[in-house]
Amino acid sequence: MPNVKLVFKYAFKDLARHKTRTFVGIIGITVSISLLALILFLSDSISVTFVDYLSINAGQQDLNIQVRHYNGEPENRSNYYDYQNLIDKIQNDVDEIEGYIPRMNLWGNVNASEGLETQELANERKGVLISGIDFELENQLKFGSFIKPGSNELLEMSSLPLNHCAIYYGLNDEIKYAENDTLEIRMGFWHGDQYYYRVRNFTIDAIFDFQLKWPIEFTFRPLIVVDIATLYEIFGNETFNGRCNELILTLKKGQNIYDARDIEGSENRVKKIAGEVQLLIGLKEFDIDSPKVEILGFSEWFSVGLTIIFVFVSIISMLISGVLINGILKTSVEERIREFGIFRTLGATKKYNLIIVLTQGLLLCNFGTILGIILAQLATEFVVLPIAGALVAESIPGLAGNITFSTTIWSILLSYIIGLSVGIIVSISPALKVMKLQLIESIHPYRKEDSLYKLRKRASVNYKLLIVGGILTVNAAFVLFVLPRIINSGDTA
C-alpha cells in the first residue's frame, strides 16, 4: 500500500514546480465546470420561479371546487352551495390543504358613463362580472393583493363596506367612472329553479389592478369586486349566507409540489391530493379543477430545452477538461520519466507511479471544480439572474423582482462528480503508460523524450482527434439544425 501522505506531497510539489502550467489547467477546468454548474443553478432558480409564474397565471389557485351537474340530479339543484360543510369534511382528512377561500360570482350589467368628468350616462350597457370575496379572510391568508393601475404599488383596500365596490381598471377604461361615483348595477342568477334579480346603487371606492388575486385571464374580464357580505345582504342572508359557487383551495409547501423539471411527478402529486378531496366531497356532486397543473403542462418545452442545453454544455465541458488535463499530465509525465525510473530502482512498485499520476489529475480537477462551482454560484446570483429578471419583467410584470437564486444539493454534487470523474478518466491513459514503461528504458541516460509517446507518420489517422471533432460536430448540428426544427414543428417525439 503506497504512502498516501507521500503521494500527495509529491503531487503537490510537482504542481507547485510548474506554476504556469498548473494555473492554466485549473483556470480551464474552472471555466468549463462553471458553465456546467451555471446551467444547473439557473435551472434550479427558474424552476422555483416557475412556481411563482404558475401562481400568477392561476391566481394562486391550486384547486377550485364548483358544482358538477349530472343526469338525474334534483331539478332545483343550485350552483351555490354551503362551503363550510365541504371545508369540515376536507380538514379532517387532508393535511396538505392550507387555505380555503370562498367566492360568490354572478353576472350583471351597467351603463357606461359619458366621461370621467361628468355624471351623465350613455345609452350603452356593458356586461360585468361581480365577484364577492371575503376581504378579512383573504387578507389573513395573504391571498393576492390589490395594486394601483400602472404600477406595483399596493392599493390600501383591506375591506369594502356594504353597497361599496371597486372596478378593475380595464373595465373602467370602457365605462369611464371615477372614484366616489355612484354606479347602478343590475344583476341576477339562477338559484336552483328560482331566478333572483336585483338592482342596486354602489359607491365606487377604488379603481384597481391585482396580483395573484384572480387567474391571469381575469385581466380580460369586466370585473367588479364587492364584499361577499354585500351579496348576502342584497339577495337574502337567510338564503345565501355561507354559500358560494367557487371554493378555492391552496396547498402547503407549493415549492415542493410543483417542479418544472418534473412535470409528470408534479401532476401526480396534485392529482393525489385532488383525488382525496374528491372522494370526501362526492364524485358526482362537485368538480375539481387544478389550474396550476393545467398551466404546468405547457412548461414541457422548458424542461426539454433545459435538458438539451445541459447535455450539450456537459459534453463540451468534459471535452475541455479532458483535453486540458490529459495534455498537462502527458507533458508532466514525459518530463519526469527518469524520476519514476529512480522510484522503481529504490523499491517502489509500478502501482506507486500509477497512483502519483492519478492523484495529480485528481488534484487539478478538484481545485478547478470547486472554483468552478463557486464562480457559477456568484455569476448566477449576481449577473445572470438580474439580467434575466430585467428581461422577464418586461413581458411578465408580476415576476419583477421575484427571480431569486436557488439551488439544490444535487446540482452541486452532480457538477462536482462530473468534474472529478473526467479528471480520473483522462488521467488513466498517461498513468498506465507510466506503469508499463520498462525500468531500463526510463533510466537510460540517452533516452529521447518522445520514446514514451511516439510520433506517428503523417499518413496515419489521428483517431482521438477525429472522435473529439465528431462529437463537437454532432452537438453543433443538433443545436443549429435539429433543435430549431423541433421547436417549429412542436413535436417532441
Short summary of the structure?
The protein is elongated and about 105 Å long.
What does this structure look like?
By secondary structure, the protein is α+β, with helices and mostly antiparallel strands. The protein has two domains: 4-54 and 299-455, no CATH class; 63-289, no CATH class. The protein is built from 16 helices and twelve strands. The protein has a six-stranded mixed β-barrel. A two-stranded antiparallel sheet has the order 2-10. Helix 1 packs across helix 13, helix 2 (19-58) runs parallel beside helix 13 (350-395) and helix 11 (300-335) packs antiparallel against helix 13. The protein is elongated. The mean pLDDT is 82.
What labels would you give this structure?
alpha+beta, 493 residues, 2 domains, two-stranded antiparallel ribbon, six-stranded mixed barrel, 16 helices
**Structure annotation, total helices:** 16
Number of strands: 12
Head-to-tail CA distance between termini: 53 Å
Unreliable runs: none
- Biggest sheet: strand arrangement: 3-4-9-6-8-7
Helix content: 40-55%
The structural class is alpha+beta
Radius of gyration: 34 Å
The global form is: elongated
Number of domains: 2
The largest sheet is: 6 strands, mixed, barrel
**Beta-strand content bin:** 15-25%
What letter string, H or E per element, gives the SSE order?
HHEEHEEHEEHEEEHHEEHHEHHHHHHH
Indicate the mean pLDDT. 82
